[in-house]
Amino acid sequence: MMTESLFSIRLRQEGCLSDFALERLRHGELDARDPAGTHLEACERCRTRMRAVQEERPPAIALRGIVERRPGRRPWSGRGGRLGALLAGAVVMASLLVWRAAPRPERLKGSAGNDLPRLGVILGRPDGSIERIAPGAALRPGDRLRFEVSARRTGFAAVVSFDGSGAVTPFVPARGPALPVPARTRTLLEGAVELDGVLGPERLLLLSCTGRVEVAALVEAGRAALSKANGEPGRLPPLGLPCDEQTFWFRKVPR
Amino acid sequence: MWGDRNELADLFQRYGALVYRRARRLLGDTHAAEDACQEVFLRLWRARPSFTETSPVTWLYRVTTNHCLNLMRDGRRRRALAAARTPPPPHQPDHEVARLLEGIPEPLQAVGVYYYLDEMTQDEIALVLGVSQRTVSNRLKEFRSLLRADDERDAECEEA
């Protein structure tokens, strides 16, 4: 019976160490004079297991949820991801902990200014440096971005990019419904993007909607609006959705 | 205990394999284990201002195990909801651990996993869970009796 195989039988040789004990010994949490250390010294089987544990390497992973692949662009994360991406995620987290007052993003369309949500953009460079950027900043391919939204009203937010090639790309979320944003709270949106090699001015549009909306619908409306603007992000008309819009421009320059 | 990204990288180098191996063992899937690994290190990073645990291995064992057990529970809930709305999908065998823990109350699941799957001693389990050895022993008894009852039910079904 299945239960027998997993939960009734303990396979380890009596007295041999658990993986937990091996890990604690390995990391110096147990002294070699501890009974576990003494056992390890004497037991060839456990020493072999300890060697196997010591030879294991951490997985090559990225921090998805912080780091997310931008569709059709060079991946920052992924199954074959890299520790660098983990670090980048950590770096972004670190930046949030030393948050400094930064210039407010540009406010464009919408009603009374105070009611508009604000978009903050956090830049993580490949060298590990982190900063919160102001509109107009010069960024480079390979730079990574995360986004923060402050809103007075509860709603749903998404960030969509309009770049120099005429591409409309959902940045966060990459798919699915826009992300919930509570009122009067600075919310770091889940997900990040790595900038691709398309150079020139790029427009980020924060869409803050009162109702739940699929990001695919926002992108579709964005494409229609961009088409009306002859593919020029600078002439983008309002998307015509029940969402507040806020723009954040940056320039992408060669690395 | 640590304060910058380099230190977090060191921690990942030191403990990443532990967390990954643990998650993979519980979840039975490398991709899910990678996700779990990320989540655990994010929690570690977020916990750092108040992190006072003198044994990171103990903390990581506890957090990884709880996270994986939660994932299994969530998976079961999702499947139950989907099953209620749609015709049953073709049979897909679940990971064995998840299936066996079905119906077992939460506090007992962790004890069962630590004892039988990880083959930890009762003292070690008490340390990880922050409970007395007596509590561990009691929970184990309860865990066994629930499994036994499950087995008996299964046997009755097979006979029927």
Word description of this protein:
The complex is a heterodimer of chains A (255) and B (160). The longest helix of chain A is centred in the middle third of the chain and has 15 residues, at 83-97. Chain A has 255 residues and is α+β, with helices and mostly antiparallel strands. Chain A contains 6 helices and 11 strands. Residues 1-5, 63-84 and 94-114 of chain A have low confidence and may be disordered. Chain B is an all-alpha fold. Chain B is 78% helix and 0% strand. The longest helix of chain B is centred in the middle third of the chain and has 30 residues, at 56-85. The A-B interface holds A 1-3, 5-12, 18-21, 23-24, 27, 29, 53, 56-59, 61-66, 79, 83, 86-87, 89-91, 93-94, 128 and B 4-5, 8-9, 12-18, 20-21, 31, 33-35, 37-39, 41-42, 45-46, 55-58, 61, 96-97, 99-100, 112, 115-121, 124, 128, 143-144, 147, 150-151, 154.
